[in-house]
Amino acid sequence: MESARLAAVYRVLYGTYGPQHWWPGDSPFEVMVGAVLTQNTAWSNVERALARLTERIPLTAEAILALGHEALAEAIRPAGYFNVKARRLRAFCHAFVADGGLTGLSGLDTPTLRERLLAVNGVGPETADDMLLYAFERPVFVVDAYTRRLFARLGLLAGDEGYETIRHAFERALGADTALFNEYHALIVRHAKAACRTRPRCAGCCLNAHCPAAS
Tens digit of pLDDT for each residue in 138-179? Predict the structure, then answer.
């Protein structure tokens, strides 16, 4: 991964879209709940699910665990896959409480904390890294489908690399910079939704000068 090209892409995206103020959430725990709910759905659906949930209970792990499965699933219905996500959210809350909540988890070093999160049923690498970066403010680069699509088109990825290979490549190239990782990931998502879609909108794309795939 070429550091200079990654930096150039970041400058163009930031200059085009400005700061994204991610992750939307009033607390680290809300960010973590959102990371579970946003799997395979749009953020607008997560916002609706969170609103319904917080109408019913305080947004704490203990309150979520005290809510029955059916009631929890109904509350988060707008997020889709609500039965699966209810089970995953309960599993996460059990682990969160068992590990001493935010205080206990925050005391762990980043590799150990990542292992703890990945050990929770339904928490994969992308969800764990969302939590690490946006809830715990650790310098971990989040890789998603938008990242693969954009940087494959830019010629910086082949597109078939494993998650960890891509994550480590970005982290080595950019250095351990939490604020940069936060903003860069958010800008990638913004650009992928606006221009670098499955069917790309190359006309007027701010990255045309950097993109071999531009038509």
Answer: 999 999 999 999 999 999 999 889 999 999 999 999 999 999
214 vs 50: CA distance, rounded Å: 38
Same fold, 3-21+141-210 and 28-135: no
| pLDDT of residue 89 exceeding 80 | yes
For 3-21+141-210, CATH gives 1.10.1670.10
The string of pLDDT tens digits covering residues 38-77 is 999 999 999 999 999 999 999 999 999 999 999 999 999 9
Cα-Cα-Cα-Cα dihedral sign, residues 27, 33, 38, 43: negative
CATH topology of domain 28-135: Endonuclease III; domain 1 (1.10.340)
Q: CA-CA distance, 76 to 82, in Å (whole number)?
A: 6
Residue pair 134/35 in contact (Cβ under 8 Å)? The answer is yes
Q: Domain-by-domain residue ranges, the chain?
A: 3-21+141-210, 28-135
